[in-house]
Amino acid sequence: RVKMSAEEILMCAVKLGKNSCLYFDELECDALCKEKTLHRVLRNVNSQLLVVRPDLNVAAFEDVTDQELQSGKGMHFSIHCYKTTTPLAGMPVAFSVQVEGKSYYMCCEREHGETIVRFKKGEVPNEIPGESNIIFYKRTFTSCSSKAFKFEYSMEQGMFLAFEEEGCLRKLTLKKLSKDEVDETMKISL
């Protein structure tokens, strides 16, 4: 017996017409519409917080004091959840953060043949008509871990947000994951 949630079942309203023909009402196009926004800090497996520093063009997981957390510069994220007509891929989300009164959104860009994570000044849109480099699919990290998630980049299947050691930094990056692999660097708690 399979247990399904409302997010996993796509339902369309129909009506029965003459000659017992079914008609679909109000079919939606494949657009994403903002549904709700969550406000959270993002933690890695080491309980470090993701901190965005646009002036240095870096986002990294860092140890943060309570005082730094209160000031919240570049740590308090808005997670914008979108409705979709294809729920099986996961919950589509976009990330934004406030730093010194300015809003920055997370996106991915190709640079020297590699996809990298960037934060750009601006707001996330309320509607996205098609594919977008700001959308990630939120999924539970493992079936046993309902409070931790992994985020797959919507434009490159199998590429997930993760951290990577670079000197003394744990930089936010994208990392390839095979189907059955569990990689703790991709585990993000909200």
UniProtKB/TrEMBL annotation:
GO terms for cellular component: cytoplasm; extracellular space. Keywords: Cytokine, Cytoplasm, Secreted. GO terms for biological process: cellular response to lipopolysaccharide; cytokine-mediated signaling pathway; immune response; inflammatory response; positive regulation of cytokine production. This is Interleukin-18. Its main location: cytoplasm. CDD domains: beta-trefoil_IL18. One of its GO terms (molecular function) is cytokine activity. It is found in: Cytoplasm; Secreted. Belongs to the IL-1 family. Forms a ternary complex with ligand-binding receptor subunit IL18R1 and signaling receptor subunit IL18RAP at the plasma membrane. Mature IL18 first binds to IL18R1 forming a low affinity binary complex, which then interacts with IL18RAP to form a high affinity ternary complex that signals inside the cell. Interacts with cargo receptor TMED10; the interaction mediates the translocation from the cytoplasm into the ERGIC (endoplasmic reticulum-Golgi intermediate compartment) and thereby secretion. It comes from the Eukaryota. InterPro entries: IL-18 (IPR015529), IL-1_fam (IPR000975), IL1/FGF (IPR008996). Gene3D superfamilies: 2.80.10.50.
